[in-house]
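For the sake of clarity, the format in which proteins appear in this thesis is described at this point. Each number in the token line that follows is a code from a learned vocabulary of backbone shapes. One such record is shown here in full, so that the layout can be seen directly:
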Amino acid sequence: MPGKIEVVHHSVVDWDFERGANARSLDATRFISAPTSLHFTTDPVMGSNAILSRLPSTQCLPQGEVRTWIWRTGTLSGPCTFRNQAALGSAGVGNCYRVALWGRKAYFHRYINHSSILIGTWPFIFVYNAWHHIRVFWYNGETPGGTPALCVDLYREVAGEWIKVEPTFYDTANWWKDSAINRCGPFSHVQPNYYTWFDDTEIWGPV
């Protein structure tokens, strides 16, 4: 992506939260950039928590990139959802693409009417209780055979450099490429006794 289109450090008013004000707080003890990070706390109701940018320049990004720092204590979590069809003022994973970390893999799903289709998995060892810098890049392109497709790349920062996690995944269905709504942002999965932190989330897109 040629340009960062949002500030590094956001306010909570810049986001729509699937769970509203439940199960979240600002944490002044664990962060990448002072003064706080976004902390998702335990919740008795297990499930997804999409976090979508409200700012005008992010409302229609059929091609883009999310970069975020993430710390988690276990279970499934971000880094992001994109081409999300939730209207401004709401958030969810009913119709979208999502990349999520779980165990020793990263999972790439498409959701249509809350029904998920697994497109692919990357090998991805995620050490709990440590910060990780992760980047998801989605764009219109072609498969190696020349078929038009949504292309998705996953990167992680290692020793200050972005390292691509192979392979590139393709979705020739290329859902929502022409939709007037194409939102994005981090994704968390909340459940009892597991916690997630996000910081310095960046959204990139054509400029």
Summary: The chain has one domain: 3-205. The domain at 3-205 is CATH 2.60.120.200 (Jelly Rolls). Residues 30 and 95 are 32 Å apart (CA to CA). The chain has a mean pLDDT of 91.
